[in-house]
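hi! just following up on the protien thing from before. the input was this:
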Amino acid sequence: MEKNYSDCPLEYAMEILGGKWKIKIIWTIYTKKIIRFNSLKRELPGITDLMLSKILKILVENNIVERVQFNEIPPHVEYSLTENGKNLVESLSNIRQWVSEQN
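and the predicted 3d structure came back as:
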């Protein structure tokens, strides 16, 4: 059953961005520009390979993160933010400023 977010579009954003790791992953990729899986994992102490893979897949499906696979020897994958992801970080920066003003 498809969800209807017309009453509150922020519900859609929270569904995509909610949870312990998603914002941390997005911010880490933003600060590093391009990062490989193992480097990203090292930046996020406590995250499992399975959880990181699952979240990256969700972020790729939602056009926030780009995944580029290099079929070289050794093969590797790099992650970066899409334009959509960069726009998201700009929006999150406004929220970050709002939170700072509350303290």
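The mean pLDDT is 91.
The radius of gyration is 15 Å.
cheers
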